[in-house]
Amino acid sequence: xxxxxAQAPATPPLNFWNGDNATAGLWIKIIIGLVLGFALxxxxxFAPTRMRRPIVVTFTFLAGLFWMVQWLWPRAGEGVxxxxxxxxxxxxxxxDALPVVTDFANILTAFLLGLGIYSLVSIHGxxxxxxxxxxxxxxxxxxxxxxxxxxxxxxxxxxLGEGAAKVELVxxxxxxxxxxxxxxxxxQMDAAMFSLIAFFILSAAYRAFRIRSIESTILLSTALxxxxxIMGAIVxxxxxxxxxxxxxxxxxxxxxxxTGSLQTPAIRAINFGVGVGAxxxxxxxxxxxxxxxxxx
Amino acid sequence: MDxxxxxxxxxxIATIGLYSVLYRENKFYxxxxxxxxxxxxxxxxxxxxxxxxxxxxxxxxxxxxxASGQPGTPGYWAYILLLPIGLMAYxxxxxxxxxxxxxxxxxxxxxxAGQQADAWSKKFLPQIAASMKPIxxxxxxxxxxxxxxxxxxLYVSQAVTNIIFLVTLLSVLSYFLFSFELKTRFMKGMTTxxxxxxxxxxxxxxxxxxxxxxxLLIDRMYFIWIEWLITGTFKM
Amino acid sequence: xxxxxxxxxxxxxxxxxxxxxxTMILTNxxxxxxxxxxxYIRRIAGxxxxxxxxxxxxxxxxxxxxxxxxxxxxxxxxQALNIFAYVTRTAARFANPIRLCCADAAVYTVAQEIISDVxxxxxxxxxxxxxxxxxxxxxxxxxxAGVSGIILREQTAATxxxxxxxxxxxxxxETANSIGAIQVASxxxxxxxxxxxxxxxxxxxxxxxxxxxxxxxxxxVLVGSLVGQDIGKILIAxxxxxxxxxxxxxxxxxxxxxxxxxxxxxxxxxxxxxxIFNPDPNRGKPKEExxx
Lengths: 296, 236, 292
What we know:
By secondary structure, chain A is mainly alpha-helical. Chain A contains eleven helices and one strand, in the order αβαααααααααα. Chain A is extended.
């Protein structure tokens, strides 16, 4: 039975940084941490004006530094769990910290959603209260937010723990409601908006066709060849006509050649440029080199 | 009036409402649009906790209890520090202290920026490697019929294709040189060629996408006419 | 071939790119302090159209609409907001109303910050309406529906779609076109650029988008970075050519196939360039036996 013990997830040893679930010790640490965090925030409000930019620059630099070090630091060998020297120690620390830091940006962004919701609620709330144009619709929007929130959250609560299996068998009021709002409306609306693009693609192509510049002609004739090459019946007819002459004249071959020898390198070259641009911008943001904009 | 039918009908009304914008902006569209925005925001708020913060933040901070078959995990209290940092962003509307909101923004951007060197290598080095195609043939003119290509051989036809590949790559790349004044006719010709070749590339993308978009439209039409109207409403 | 298998050549290449950019930024700061003459930047049609578009919307007294894409907070959305700061500055001087619609709360936060900053620096803080920068939805097509509604109801005369756009790009572009708005657009997603080309008046292709802030502001840091980026692209082109030369030469190297014992040319994964890009410290070593 040795292999069973080896496969069980190892519980990390308790230390200063953690505590067992639902123990008073952990809660005290969390509360102290929260108080310290808010103290830091309030302390920052008293920072002298000339210190403001350096503070932001430092935070930005440290956040990026982790990833740069993680990229450049030599990896510890496979199977090494106990460091034998300082380099390996840092490498192992980086390996442990990686899954933690990966979520940081997502968590911070999640806390910011409130600002977005504030924007929505304040714009539509003002319109509703002042009875400006379309205030009825604004009211409906705010109502939809509340209803979706209530049903979404209530549905989630019924599915916790053992509830999930029960809900699958006999959906209750909250589950039906969420099903109606999410699957019945929200997802259908997504699909409807997405499919609208088919109409727009036609009108855009028609207009581009009328411009008659060299570039739009090149773009649309290539588009036409590639488009026809996906239509099974037409391809079959054309290809059977071309087959006796040469296999290379088959429409599917031509379209494949255009994609492989012209589209791929052209798009790749554009992406090289975009990639270098993003890399340069990343370095400038990390080191706060830009003046104005976000770097202040 | 069973539940399934109500659900289908609501979906169909919403679809028709959104489609009505093709004719012109109207009250029906406006109604559906506002419901759509409201539901989307409401769902975001719900999912923020149920699908994001609960598992990535809360459970890691307070730990999880021992459940059936699963050992509990200890909580890491330091996760709480992310909350005040995130809340600093809310100073953005303050006239005096709006600079504080730049701290969480700076951290998010710093985390993003730091990953770029690694991300760039992972994304573009394989593409650079794949572009290094040999251009001098070492074998016959075309692939011999029947036997198929010999490993390691480069036939003349493939070599010509590889040269076209390389020329396309370099001429499009030359189009994106912004700070060098291209004075020679050769370079000017190269950038013009680059722009035209780029249009071929864009055309191919256009052609490939048109069909997938029409598939979506057909799906929607199927939903309205078949699922909702014929089988749902008239039970045919 | 062990020296190729440590993987350091790959890291070195990226470090050389970064160093080239940083060097050019630093030299250009120094150079611009010495003389006031600016560096050459080639003409980018889409950017010259910005003033024209704002001018027209001022004449018509209609708002200018800006959308920084639907991606999260990263260089792309920040770059879009940097360009929008320029657009807003011009619009603010003519007292032209603006609408900036965001699909991400973090981007919305930065947009509030940058746009209110623009008005403050122009001394026009009283003209700034907090509600002109708004969060619409973080759901892709709900955002598309919401922005379409704004375009149609407010009859925006100039629209700027710059940033990370996906399938919804065409919904924006065609809706704006249907009311006759001037459109300047750019997507860093090459899969969407063709639709912008077909539907919009001016399109920034590929990294013209990243060149935009240097082009508009002529700031030494940005112009220097632009020169560095060009050098980066030349380095990539040079590297590709070098690889082509090596691979072409090694076409003629022959080896004995271990299976058939006949002479044949090197396969692509036996060539130097392949080994450099696919470092494997265990290559060439005898394989360990399966069971010890």
